[in-house]
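Lecture notes, part 5. Sequence design as translation. It can be helpful to think of inverse folding as translation between two languages: the language of shapes and the language of residues. The source text, in structure tokens, appears below.
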């Protein structure tokens, strides 16, 4: 007999919240993405401003090297760059990579050793390059992120009206599906960039690659330069968040996305580190230490909202966020208690009905 395992929603929620999430380097984007890009998921990023998209991709590649407590994935990255050989005779943009590593407190020499660069310059090479990436992740268990930059433009012509050649589009889709299967089997995050299908000056456009790719990706993010120093990010698809748009600032002098140098993030991390050393380690009961870890995950996931709260100190904001998270858990427990009470009442009624039926049966005695 086959045994079916049942799990309640609260356990699944806790498991989801416990999964590491990779920061984008922007509080606004992290908040839009429910705390960042979750480990083991497939994210599609589209945009017609290539330097802007590249900056986000390189931020993800570099931040993957950071430990989990600093919103990284504590592992290596694979960067597959695709483009015209005559224009882009390089595996990696060293200037951008070095600046991004330095801005995150990572020694560039050490950091570049942790980034595995692969390239392909035409559609004929693409299949072999994808296979090279699959072999890398198969034999290197430290890889946590695979980024594919501009593979679609090797297969899909940017023609007037946004028409896409069916055969080449299907070839592109097959390569992405093969790579995603290899990543998902090893719980590796996959991020792919492409152009919008029909660029529009005011509203976001679906990415290239057809409906198949849009169904395959779990998260789709469209980013666009809106004006002087303003960037728009449109969340088109996400497992737990509704579609919406946020705007954030971009400073060229930072060489990074959004508000990487905003004081709040460092203040929050400092408070968490202080509480971990001085408070968590002093707690006597393991269950309370586990509870502290749950609250830490809530702080990390909601740092975007926390940064906008008009509360005097960081610690008070943290207390407010913890109270909200506790309230959420209480509501979930109340729902469970109500369900159990209903089931118990139903069981009592069935027992009472069974007793009455037994008493009315012929030959029944007290």
């Amino acid at each position: 007999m086959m045994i079916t395992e049942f799990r309640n929603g609260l356990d699944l929620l806790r498991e989801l919240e416990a999964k590491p999430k990779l920061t984008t380097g922007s509080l606004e984007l992290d908040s839009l993405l429910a705390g960042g890009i979750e480990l083991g998921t497939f994210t599609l990023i589209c945009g017609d401003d290539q330097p802007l998209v590249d900056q986000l991709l390189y931020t993800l590649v570099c931040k993957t090297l950071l430990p989990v407590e600093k919103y990284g994935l504590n592992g290596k990255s694979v960067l597959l760059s695709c483009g015209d050989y005559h224009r882009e005779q390089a595996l990696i943009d060293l200037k951008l990579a070095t600046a991004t590593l330095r801005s995150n407190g990572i020694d560039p020499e050490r950091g570049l050793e942790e980034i595995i660069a692969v390239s392909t310059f035409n559609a004929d090479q693409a299949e072999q390059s994808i296979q090279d990436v699959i072999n890398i992740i198969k034999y290197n268990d430290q890889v946590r992120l695979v980024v594919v930059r501009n593979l679609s433009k090797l297969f899909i012509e940017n023609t007037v009206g946004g028409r896409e050649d069916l055969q080449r589009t299907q070839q592109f889709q097959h390569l992405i599906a093969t790579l995603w299967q290899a990543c998902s089997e090893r719980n590796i995050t996959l991020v792919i960039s492409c152009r919008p299908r029909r660029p529009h000056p005011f509203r976001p456009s679906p990415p290239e690659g057809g409906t198949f790719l849009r169904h395959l990706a779990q998260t789709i993010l469209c980013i666009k330069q809106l004006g002087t120093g303003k960037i728009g990010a449109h969340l088109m698809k996400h497992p737990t968040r509704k579609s919406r748009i946020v705007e954030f600032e971009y400073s060229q002098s930072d060489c990074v996305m959004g508000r990487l140098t905003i004081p709040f993030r460092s203040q929050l991390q400092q408070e968490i580190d202080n509480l971990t050393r001085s408070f968590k380690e002093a707690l006597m009961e393991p269950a309370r230490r586990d509870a502290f870890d749950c609250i830490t995950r809530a702080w990390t996931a909601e740092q975007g909202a926390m940064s906008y709260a008009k509360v005097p100190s960081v610690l008070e904001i943290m207390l407010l966020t913890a109270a909200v998270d506790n309230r959420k858990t209480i509501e979930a427990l109340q729902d469970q208690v109500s369900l159990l009470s209903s089931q118990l009442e139903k069981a009592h009624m069935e027992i009472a009905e069974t007793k009455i039926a037994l008493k009315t049966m012929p030959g029944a005695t007290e």
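The translated text above is only one of many valid answers, since several sequences can fold into similar shapes. The CA atoms of residues 173 and 193 lie 13 Å apart.
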